[in-house]
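Quick one, C-alpha cells below. Sequence please?
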C-alpha cells in the first residue's frame, strides 16, 4: 500500500506548480523538474501527459532499487520526457518549421474574407453565388456600408486555434448578421443577411470548408507540439 500511495504522490507532484504567460503566446505551465535541475514546462495536455508518464517511470525505477518509497518526488529525466513527447509527433509535422498559427506565432495574421493563398476557395464559392446588384465588389464588405472583415478575421482565428467548427461557424454567422442589423431599412438588412448566409454556407456546409478546417486544426496541433518540444530543449 505504501508503494502504491507513493506512486500516486509522485504523479500528482507533476501537476501544475506554476504558470507564466507571454503576450500573444500560449499559457505555459511548469509541470515538474528534470534531473538536470531545470523545469519541464508545457502548453498542451499531451506534453503534461508525457511529463507524468516519465515521472511515474522514474518512480517505479526507484522503487525497484530501494526498499522504501522516496521522501521527495523523483525527478524525470530530460531524455525520457523528450522521448515520450517526441512519440506524440503529429503526422506530416516539421519540428524545424512548424506552421504559423494564432497563439503560437506572434507574426500570424488573418487573411480577411477568403482572399489570398489556400483561402481562394472561399472567394470562388462566394463570387459564384453573388448575383445581386447590391454587391459592392469588395469581399470584405460585400454590402455597401457594412464590413464583414472583423467577422472573417475572428473566424480565421477561431479555426486557427482549433476551436469547435460548429461554434466558430455559428459565431461567424451571428457576427455578420449583427453587422447587418444597423442598416436603415428591412430591405437592406435582408439583402445584407443574404450575403452573410452565403459566407456562412461557404465555411459551414461545403467540403472545401471541412477540408480547410481540418487543415487548420492539424496546423495548430503541429505548432503546439513543436512549441513544447523547443520549449523543453527536445529538438534533437
Amino acid at each position: 500500500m505504501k508503494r502504491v500511495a507513493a506512486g500516486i504522490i509522485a504523479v500528482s507532484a507533476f501537476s501544475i506548480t506554476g504558470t507564466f504567460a507571454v503576450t500573444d503566446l500560449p499559457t505555459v505551465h511548469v509541470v515538474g523538474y528534470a534531473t538536470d535541475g531545470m523545469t519541464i514546462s508545457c502548453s498542451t495536455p499531451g506534453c503534461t501527459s508525457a511529463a507524468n508518464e516519465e515521472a511515474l517511470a522514474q518512480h517505479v525505477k526507484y522503487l525497484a532499487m530501494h526498499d522504501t518509497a522516496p521522501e521527495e518526488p523523483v525527478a524525470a529525466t530530460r531524455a525520457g520526457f523528450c522521448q515520450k513527447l517526441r512519440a506524440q509527433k503529429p503526422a506530416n509535422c516539421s519540428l524545424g518549421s512548424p506552421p504559423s498559427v494564432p497563439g503560437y506565432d506572434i507574426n500570424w495574421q488573418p487573411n480577411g474574407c477568403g482572399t489570398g493563398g489556400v483561402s481562394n476557395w472561399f472567394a470562388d464559392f462566394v463570387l459564384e453565388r453573388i448575383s445581386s446588384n447590391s454587391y459592392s465588389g469588395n469581399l470584405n464588405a460585400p454590402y455597401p456600408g457594412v464590413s464583414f472583415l472583423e467577422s472573417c478575421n475572428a473566424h480565421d482565428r477561431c479555426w486557427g486555434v482549433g476551436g469547435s467548427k460548429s461554434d466558430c461557424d455559428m459565431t461567424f454567422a451571428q457576427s455578420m448578421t449583427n453587422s447587418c442589423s444597423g442598416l436603415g431599412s428591412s430591405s437592406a438588412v435582408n439583402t445584407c443577411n443574404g450575403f452573410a448566409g452565403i459566407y456562412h454556407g461557404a465555411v459551414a456546409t461545403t467540403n472545401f470548408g471541412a477540408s480547410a478546417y481540418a487543415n487548420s486544426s492539424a496546423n495548430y496541433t503541429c505548432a503546439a507540439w513543436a512549441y513544447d518540444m523547443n520549449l523543453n530543449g527536445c529538438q534533437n
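Residues 117-219 form a domain with the Phospholipase A2 fold (CATH 1.20.90). The first helix runs from residue 2 to 12.
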